[in-house]
Amino acid sequence: MTEKKDIKIVGIEVRTSNRAEMNGAGKIGAHWQKFFQENVAGQISNSVSDDVFAIYMDYESDVSGEYSFVLGKQVDSFAVVPAGLVAKVLPASKYSVFTTPKGPMPNVVIEAWQHIWSLSAAQLGAERAYRADFEVYDHRSADPGNTQIEIFISVK
Predict the structure, then answer these.
(1) Three-class SS state of 120
(2) Using an 8 Å Cβ cutoff, are 48 and 77 in contact?
(3) 8 A C-beta contact, residue 131 and residue 57
(4) Which strands sit side by side in the sheet containing 2-4, from one edge to the other?
(5) What is the pTM of this model?
(6) pLDDT by position in tens, the chain (length 156)
(7) Which residues are CB-contacts of 147 (< 8 A; sequence separation ≥ 6)?
């Protein structure tokens, strides 16, 4: 468990659901492609690091509802938000943190989420809050064949 203060993010956003992602109508894969093809990270001038955040927020309800998926970088302010990008705040929260084993993308991420979804509140350490959950892609994810990421799950 850890606690985080508000985190400012600038990036790109799309709405989707877990049902769509599992039924072949998902948008996350194409959203990652857009992020890299349009060099979104390179458009964010006031980022605090090179880490990429993949955020699940604005939940309609719970694991079954729609949510916003945002890819971006942490910034020190919203003073400069390039056209076509969004400014979002990961709200201050308590998080249960998971570090994936090393392995190929996207397998390690999919397997980690399947594990997280299978956990009871007791196993998670608290009940999920569905405020905002996020993945951090840092230097450990530079090699897509041997990636490791951290996943932060907001809890009550």
Answers:
(1) coil
(2) no
(3) yes
(4) 2-4, 93-99, 150-155, 132-137, 52-57, 66-74, 7-17, 86-90
(5) 0.95
(6) 999 999 999 999 999 999 999 898 899 999 999 999 999 999 998 999 999 999 999 999 988 899 999 999 999 999 999 999 999 999 999 999 999 999 999 999 999 999 999 999 999 999 999 999 999 999 999 999 999 999 999 999
(7) 100, 102, 103, 104, 105, 108, 109, 137, 140, 141
